[in-house]
Amino acid sequence: MLFNLENSNSSTNYKLMSQTVIPRPIAWVVTENRKGVINIAPFSYFTPLSSNPPTMLISVGHKSDGTPKDTLQNLRDTKRCVICLTETKDLDKMHLSSKALASNISEADEFNIKTKKLLEDFPPIVEDTPCAYFCTYNQELDISKATIPIILNIKELFINDRIIKDRDKLEIEFNPIARVGKSYKNLGEELKAPNI
User: Tens digit of pLDDT for each residue in 35-55?
Assistant: First the structure.
């Protein structure tokens, strides 16, 4: 079956893409508004864009009333965010934090998500995250009015000591939560490729 994504609606496109581009790791994107309210939102539409320069891409939508989601508005206002990877232990709180809340209510408070300040000029990280990218706003890509892809410059990277397996070789190992179709999974079994 062939699907013409240019002529289908965004809901159909999302269903098709989210069930075929798998697995997609889920990260909490942490931002703060101008009043200091911390917003913690889960994203599976994020990806590394380049390692030279180190950049990340996230896609942010709008609320049902057409206004920008808090993550988008906060990024536009403060130009800062922290992208925290999630693990199996975070599943319940990560899922709950996808619930739409008023801009003056923090997911950290509402769902008891503990945070910790590491860098003065950035929002806090989610406590005990395996890793966190400290990013600054670079630009928005104008591809539609519904979803806004945002390029972020990665300024700093925090790696939790507990996931570093070999410091000299920079080997890191953890079990992130991934979105696979409509469900969540962890990566599970490691597959070995043949030697070339």
Answer: 999 999 999 989 999 989 999
